Amino acid sequence: MGLFFYLTIVIGISLIYYGYVKKTEKDIKMKELELEAKKIELEMKKLEYRQDSSE
C-alpha cells in the first residue's frame, strides 16, 4: 500500500507541474501575440502620419 500511495503522490505532483508549465507557455505566447499586434498598430500609425504630413 505504501508504494501505491507514493506513486499516486508523484503522479499527482507531475500532473500539477505539467499543467503549470503549459499555462506559462500559453501566457508567454499570448503576450508575444499582443506585442506583435501593438507593433502592427504602431506601423499603421506611422504610415498614416507620413501620409497625412505629405499632403
Task: List its salient traits.
55 residues; mainly alpha; 0% strand; rod-shaped
Low-confidence stretches: none
Share of helix, binned: over 70%
- Strand content range: under 5%
Distance between the termini: 82 Å
Structural class: mainly alpha
Tell me how many strands there are: 0
Nearest-integer average pLDDT: 94
SSE succession: H
Main beta sheet: none
The number of helical runs is 1
Radius of gyration: 24 Å
Shape: rod-shaped
Q: Oligomerization state of this entry?
A: single chain
Describe this structure in words.
The protein is mainly α. The protein has a domain at about 20-55. The chain is built from 1 helix and no strands. It has one helix at about 1-55. The radius of gyration is 24 Å and the shape is rod-shaped. The termini are far apart. The model has no long low-confidence stretch (mean pLDDT about 95).
Write a brief caption for the model.
By secondary structure, the chain is an all-alpha fold. It is built from 1 helix and no strands. Helix content is 96%, strand content 0%.
